[in-house]
Design a protein that fits this description.
Radius of gyration: 19 Å
Pfam family, one: Alba
Protein name: DNA/RNA-binding protein Alba-like domain-containing protein
Helix content: 40-55%
InterPro entries: Alba-like_dom_sf, DNA/RNA-bd_Alba-like, UCP030333_Alba
Order of helices and strands: HHEHEHEEH
Organism: Sphagnum jensenii
Structural class: alpha+beta
Largest sheet: 4 strands, mixed
Shape: elongated
Strand content: 25-35%
Length: 131
C-alpha cells in the first residue's frame, strides 16, 4: 500500500489536483465576478493564481484573466492548453474536451490597487450616509 501512495506522489497527480492556488472555473455554477474576486483573494495569499477550465468554461477563464490584467492587478505568466479524455455520461463513450490553465502573477502595483479598493469601500458608505 505504501508503494502505491509513493508512486502516486512521484507522478505528481496528487499534488497537481490539490494545489492551494488553483481555481477550477465552471461556466454554470457561479457568476463571472465571483471568480474575479476569488482570484484577487488567492493572489493576496499567494504570489500567483492558476485558473483552470474545461470546454465551454474556457471563455469564462479567459475573461477573468483579462479583467484582472486590464485592471492592472495581474500579469500573465503561463498559458497551457490541452485535451482531456472524459466519459460521456449519455453515450458512455470517451470524448475529448479542451482544457486551459492560465497562471497569473501579482502585478507590481497589486498591493497599491487592492489597498485603494479597500479604502474606496470604506469611504463610500460614509458619503451615502451624509446625503
Amino acid at each position: 500500500m505504501e508503494e502505491l501512495s509513493e508512486g502516486v506522489s512521484n507522478l505528481g497527480v496528487y499534488n497537481e489536483t490539490h494545489k492551494k492556488n488553483r481555481i477550477q472555473v465552471s461556466n454554470t455554477k457561479k457568476p463571472l465576478f465571483f471568480y474575479v474576486n476569488l482570484a484577487k483573494r488567492y493572489m493576496e495569499q499567494h504570489e500567483e493564481v492558476e485558473l483552470s477550465a474545461l470546454g465551454m468554461a474556457i471563455a469564462t477563464v479567459v475573461t477573468v484573466a483579462e479583467i484582472l490584467k486590464n485592471n492592472g492587478l495581474a500579469i500573465e505568466k503561463k498559458i497551457l492548453t490541452s485535451t482531456v479524455d472524459m466519459r460521456d455520461e449519455v453515450r458512455g463513450c470517451l470524448i475529448q474536451k479542451a482544457k486551459v490553465e492560465i497562471t497569473l502573477g501579482k502585478s507590481e502595483q497589486f498591493e497599491e490597487l487592492m489597498a485603494a479598493a479597500v479604502e474606496e469601500q470604506v469611504v463610500t458608505p460614509e458619503v451615502e450616509e451624509q446625503s
